[in-house]
Design brief:
It is built from 15 helices and 16 strands. With 480 residues, the chain is an alpha+beta fold. The strands form four sheets. It has a nine-stranded mixed sheet. Helix 5 (301-312) crosses helix 6, helix 6 packs across helix 8 (344-362) and helix 7 packs antiparallel against helix 8.
């Protein structure tokens, strides 16, 4: 519902993801184009030259089959490619090879978590098409780079089952996580390999008839999708409240201004004049082929999350965060395989805390740094054995993250071993007591905070090496 509670919001998303194939969808040109000069990854086929004949990329087809199965879709045994006709300068042929009424996958679902509740979003279809070229607009003229044209593009179309911008954002994040798990797409919105168009309408609360559908384009981040849908939700409510009527149209999101602007009237399917692609034969997905793809599916995020909770006592929300990244989930599995199931919660705390902090600062995955699972487990053992304090462990972890060295070696090099011997600590405790008479008076007055302060001063004096439990015991002895 909108904030006013008078209307129900209805949202469906169309998500395009570039597939991680080495060659384009219908030719042999390389897909590694991002840092290449314009129009260098091209051939007569992706340039749309007369007489050039396309040939379908088998790996791209299998990636779409894999995704469809992971989304609980039915696979179409008999499918085909179609010509979608519309006239834009980024289509070299004047049409796009896509799929219309016989997609590779259809009728599936994806579960998302919003506000601690499970929501099931229907998947209408998962189909395969080719990406278009990219236009660059200058003052008075435009240029076209064809490098992107022909990249395999998978489109996932949801049912209009989302009821808020929050749900739409969560759906996108969950879908991207799934695609990365499957290894079929990078899912990077920044470079355009994961793009979203949103359809949003409002209807009076309690009614079932859908309102006029407005399509929103040009959203380049999860935050942008959320802001655009929030704005459009409020705009449409204002039009309806004033007695106006909404029309079916395509809106563009202007990120800098935080508004949507009308681009054109929304096309209908018949406007594209679909017909079967005459240069490509119908595609038959045999039972054997389907079973081969099904058997190759990895453990999916939902199943892995349930396993982390059941086997390793990881809190449910922590498990959600862990499985959001396949490399992080696999690293966690490696750690608990070494440390044992009882250490699961401790491992997840470190991975989601200090390790994630370091990774986020460098914008990398855990597989891209030198940190090793056996080193992580060894670090936990040093802490458990009172050989390394909490602050010392953080210092050791940072060096492990940079160099990949074993924690024991780092601890010895930097003299970070925890001080647990009472004789060694007593001198530091006595000095702290002498230097902080006010805190001592507060302690004797029964103020608990004074003990924490004095303990902190001992930790500071020993550069974090003091054993907190021994320190507190000595403080109480000296102050008694």
């Amino acid at each position: 519902m909108t904030e006013q509670g008078r209307y129900e919001t209805v949202i469906g998303l169309e998500v395009h993801a570039q597939l991680l194939t080495n060659s384009k969808m219908f030719c042999g040109c390389s897909t590694d184009y991002l840092d290449s000069p314009p129009n260098t990854h091209v051939c007569p086929i992706c340039l749309g030259m007369p007489g050039a004949m396309p040939s379908a990329n088998k790996q791209a087809i299998e990636y779409v089959m894999t995704t469809a199965l992971a989304l609980h879709c039915e696979l179409s045994r008999n499918t085909r490619f179609d010509r979608k006709n519309y006239f834009y300068p980024d289509l070299m042929k004047g049409y796009q090879i896509s799929q219309y009424d016989a997609p590779i996958g259809h009728t599936g679902w994806l579960d998302i978590q919003v506000g601690g509740e499970n929501r099931r979003i229907g998947i209408t279809r998962v189909h395969l098409e080719e990406d278009v070229a990219k236009s660059f607009h200058h003052d008075g003229y435009s240029l076209v780079d064809v490098n992107r044209s022909g990249i395999p593009l998978m489109e996932t179309v949801s049912e209009p089952d989302m009821r808020s911008p929050e749900e739409a954002r969560e759906y996108l994040m969950t879908l991207r996580s799934l695609l990365r798990y499957l290894g079929v797409s990078t899912g990077n919105m920044e470079d355009g390999s994961f793009r979203c168009d949103a359809n949003i309408s409002l209807r009076p609360w309690g009614t079932t008839e859908l309102g006029a559908k407005v399509e929103v384009k040009n959203m380049n981040s999860f935050r942008g999708v959320y802001r655009a849908l929030k704005y459009e939700q409020q705009r449409q409510a204002a039009v309806l409240d004033s007695g106006g009527k909404l029309k079916q149209e395509t809106m563009g999101w202007i990120e800098a201004e935080g508004v949507t602007v009308s681009q054109r009237s929304k096309e209908y399917a018949e406007d594209y004049r679909y017909f079967p692609e005459p240069d490509l034969p119908p595609l038959v997905l045999t039972g054997e082929w389907m079973e081969q793809i099904r058997n190759g599916l990895p453990e999916l995020p939902e199943a892995r999350k349930a396993r982390f909770v059941d086997q390793f006592s990881v809190p449910a929300q922590d498990a959600v965060t862990l499985v959001a990244s396949r490399p992080m989930a696999e690293f966690f599995d490696e750690c608990v395989a070494i440390a044992g199931p009882s250490r699961g919660h401790a491992v997840s705390n470190w991975l989601l805390g200090d390790v994630s902090r370091l990774l986020n600062a460098d914008s990398i995955e855990i597989c891209d740094c030198p940190l090793q699972a056996h080193g992580m487990v060894e670090l936990l053992e040093l802490i458990d054995n009172n050989e390394l304090s909490g602050p010392g462990a953080k210092s050791v972890l940072e060096e492990m993250y940079k160099s990949g060295k074993r924690p024991a070696a780092i601890m010895e090099e930097k003299n970070l071993g925890q001080i647990s011997g009472s004789d060694e600590l007593r001198t530091a405790v006595q000095q702290v007591i002498a230097d902080n008479p006010k805190a001592v008076a507060d302690f004797k007055a029964g103020k608990e905070q004074a003990t924490k302060f004095l303990t902190g001063q001992v930790m500071r004096a020993t550069r974090g090496r003091a054993n907190p439990a021994v320190t507190r015991e000595l403080l109480e002895q000296e102050l008694a």
